[in-house]
Predict the structure.
Amino acid sequence: MDLTNEQLLDMYVTMNKIRTFENRVAELFADGKIPGFVHLYVGEEAVATGVCASLTDQDYITSTHRGHGHLIAKGGDIKLMMAELFGKKTGYCKGKGGSMHIADLNLGIMGANGIVGGGPPLASGAALACQYLGNDGVAVCFFGDGASNQGTTHEAMNLATCWKLPVVFVNENNMYGISSCTLNSMCVPNIADRAAAYDMPGVVVDGNDVIAVCEAAAEGISRARQGKGPSLIECKTYRHRGHFEGDPCAYREDSELEEWKEKDPIPRLEQKLMEIELLTDAKINEIKSGLQKDMADAEQFAEESPFPDVSELTEDVYT
Amino acid sequence: MSSVGIIANPASGTDIRRLVAYGSVFNNQEKVRIVRRILLGLEAAGVQQISYMPDYYGIVERALDALKTSMNILPLVFNAKADQRDSMRAAEILAQNGAGCIITLGGDGTNRVVAKGACNTPILPVSTGTNNVFPYMIEGTIAGLAAGLIAAGKVPQKEGTFTSTQLEVIVEQQLTDVAIVDAVVCDDIFIGSRAVWKMDKIKQVFLNRSSPASIGFSSIGGMLRSIAPHEPFSMVLELGQNGPTVTAPIAPGVVETVSVKNVRMMASGEEVALTHSPCVVALDGEREVEIKRGQQATIRLSTDGPLVVDVEQTMAYAMQKRIFASDVNIN
């Protein structure tokens, strides 16, 4: 795949931005500054980054409960994200939604989603809108291995193929639906194997290799834009942290985590970019210190923002 | 005691070529059914011991669910990694344990890895991958019978097998990897999703076998001349612009026209230098070896490739010797 130096560096920066954001959120959550739950994307950065590299602002994504990475990769503003996590009025949902409801329709981000399997029907719906309007847009549905077993996913994929909708289903198979290992919850080894039932292409890629993800996503997105219908890309990956912050992870072995950390997508890309002299130690330090400053600014913005007023409690609430 | 190994790759048939080409979907349940028929063929041929590569789907275990057999069937014991290292490790153990034959289920990529570990153990490759040139499109029962005949010594190896050539990738004078069908030099720096489908990225094609009736890159050479897998020479094509053209099925459902700047034959033991650096070398259809800027790399043809069961010859020998027939006269 022909990626420019600028695109390669952009992907490196995006992955680090997600990692830096998530690591800081973990600290803030532990300090009690973030209410509710957070599900962090550490370890899975290559998926969102590799996929969103081929999307434009007119394209849509639907996300999951583990959505921060998707939002950042699609161009979400980390100040507004952090403010939302803090429950502040300046946040994406005016502080009333928290981690699992962040959306930015101007960027085509249809929202994180606390309902497992809630995203696929939304993605097919957005794709139907693109098809109806004839605007060349594409919808990408990020969903987890747990969501792959939900009826909503089946319905969305079936309809997407019947109507040849411009949607790409990107499965993030991190091996665990909360604590249930896919080895015990699925009767096929690959979620992509199910694509055959919908007569759509289904492929498996190394979800910890941003180039592999980017290549597959570019083909799926291009296929969708050309009116050739949906596809399913399964990205094999792993979350370094628990299902939620505070999860003791008693259901998996430490050795498994260590093995996956050896396949961490960020050092893998970093090493390659250093080999081709696109990155140097100085450049890496510059990027990482810049991101730390951005995080500090976002945190300060969130800290200094007001909470929503009690009088606004029932505004913007639809159910 | 006659013993056979089974290496069924649960991951074959799932790569990006289903998206960029029209590769068939080969699900693991179909592999289960093939293994079931292989086992029945092996038993009919008199095999007593089966060892198999464990895999996360349990292809052989599921095959056994619906069978009653007197054969002793056991998994190989090693720390499985759920990637291609398992196939190689399984092949090494089977070779060390003196298996009489290894049956593989996979594509060219799977068989390349098995060939690296199998040493001189005969391989009977059953096709379940994407660009399949090395493995046979064959009914599992026949595969079981043929492998069983070789493993049990009922058909001598010299009658029912051949030694394939292979291509050796040499980087900085070190043997780095091998290909059993083709080695393709790509103007790329990433291995990425592994498959190769953009012809404008391909600069050189090395083929140790070719046929006009095959799929994949070997079909490019195959449109010019055939090379049998045991013949001690290979073909080297340099692709470029404004040369004579060859139209060939480079992937399932993808027929491309390429411009060929130069074609030459390469003898056994001869080395040909790669014309590009940096580049990525795809082996049997998958990007595998990164050549860094300034590195010297060559490709050499070796006649010391994998030992392969010739199913037609094996079954023909069985017919001649009436292995499956008693004193039946044809009137």
